[in-house]
Amino acid sequence: MWKKVLLFWLGIVVTVGVQAEGRTIKAFNDNWQFKRGPFPEDPVKWQAVWEKGWKEVQLPHTWNARDMQEQHNNFYAGPAYYRKRLSVSPDWKGKNIFLRFEGIGQVAEIYVNGEYAGNHLGGYSACAFDLTALLKSGEENEILVRVDNSSRPDVIPVNHSLFGVYGGIYRPVWLVITEPVHIAVTDYASPGVYITQKNVSARQAEVGIKVKIENRLGTVCRMELENAVYDAEGKVCKLQREEIIVLPQGTQEFRQQFRMKRPHLWQGRPDPYLYKVVTRLKREGQIWDEVIQPLGLRKYEIIAGKGFYLNGEKYPMYGVTRHQDWWGLGSALGREQHDADLAAILDIGATTIRLAHYQQSDYFYSRCDSLGLIVWAEIPFVNRVSTQEGPNAKEQLRELIRQSFNHPSIYVWGLHNEVYAPTAYTAALTRQLHDVAKTEDPDRYTVSVNGYGHMEHPVNRNADIQGMNRYFGWYEKNIQAIQPWIEDLETRFPDYKLMLTEYGADANIAHQTEYIEESLDWTKAFYPETFQTKTHEYQWGIIAQHPYIIASYLWNMFDFAVPMWKRGGVEARNMKGLITFDRQVKKDAYYWYKANWSKEPVVYITQRRLKEREKQQTEVTVYSNVGRPDLYVNGIRQSPARQGYTDVHFVFENVRLNKGKNVLEAIVQQGDKTHTDQIEWNYTRERKAGEAVPLDKNTEHWGF
Predict the structure, then answer these.
(1) Catalytic pick among 395, 418, 502, 700
(2) Is position 686 annotated as part of the catalytic site?
């Protein structure tokens, strides 16, 4: 069934991306020219360099694909220009013409034939501009975009510390051509159609559709508004038409209501069933405009202390987080990169994803709809407070909600992550953001995230859900400190909705050792993968025992760029990912979660990159979700394993290696199927490969 739903939804994407009845949507990504600064301040020198040095680029494009990834604190952040020619077709006479940018990093100004068309503040939300009055028919028109990714105190994020804001037009651009009466294009670059759902159950669901319409004819116009709901087979389930009068002043709203009996519910990964809503605007029987949006009928509910419920049934929230950048590409990704990331997330068995720390590609949200991943969407109010970011934070939140409103996969709007002093200001701004979210979308939850571990912190408790980032053993205390922390909150705050929104440890796969303790000093250069593995083994074992943690989100699915840092012997890299930045290596912790979460068979021996062993007598860990494994070392069966932290965790103790090459094989017989894994280790002498220094810090992580 899910394959059929996926093909159905991809059909919607293709339709929207190419041609909808009554409007034309054209890709506007080829044959751009690009020029990067810095630029001279002297106007004479400026004029001299303006026409030189332009290079041809194709969008998506970023100028930071390398310099933000290869050396810390040595990248270009500043102004750059993009320009492109546009010829206005005679067929467009009487039409309205818009440009829609999916993402510009991060402040943009748009000019058409030298005239100012508008600006946009924010590197992650879409923006749309009406070019109709600025274009000249029968001539070539110049579109000029000034882009600047410098840090600003009035635009979130206010710095490049937690992640880099890649400069450029790094997502696709679309030319949208409509009739003069059309569904709104410039309503915060939203679809102009908003679908709500109430009282959803297996018996019935109430669906509301709000449509925003603009009339540029200059006279009152009588139209027909039609909303049709199609099932996954393409059959019309509901159809409603009404005559409307569209006034020539301002954007108007029109609403329709449906009641769907015995609906096919959207049930997450097991059954991500999608309807589609087709909204048509007609005049004298002719379609003037059409917008297609997904509809997944579902009910989300969080019960404090008990868990997350989807359509009345408790649903496991196996959570990962994702930054959008790739090695060598930055944030200028194509659909193939988004699909590759999603394939890994599905393979591990995740059911929910925190898209951190900013609005991500609409294509990615759409794929989560069709694949059944439950999504946390958030704005980039992170890391530091400037006291000047309030208006922009509200604007970016409003953009996120309106642009993403119809995605059934989204259950919560994220308001901030690890922002603190001045606490009175930050708490007040969080309450204001909560109010914006509830005004725009009363039916979804809100969440804010703190790096401190106590509920009483003054910026906490201003959203529906309190998230906490806890890095026990890495930034504070030791790995085992997670258990008393959870139990204390369970006892003192039983009625609070709490999520563990980040946890984990860095792992440089070139760093390996058997000698690790219960903490690691992250300020040192040695980041062994074995410590990351140990952290996740223990901490997921504890999380799984505590339904008080409504959802947990490991940090991070993939290594990513941090252009201000040098840590763990690598420039500009956060290595907390379960998969390396180039997406080539899945670390041991990846298979830990796959064994615990996925229904796919897993038998996996850990420490396969620690080939040169340090101890002759050692332990061997095997993950198996298909039964208790047998371990053979050089063909000799070892003593039975002890059970580890979960029922897929098996530890073989006192395994003695021969000098030289050793072949390890784990075997599980499951009925008539045999599942195996085999690796090789080499032992020459007792030694230590590197110094894993324990952390000498008992204070809590506060976020940076």
Answers:
(1) 418
(2) no
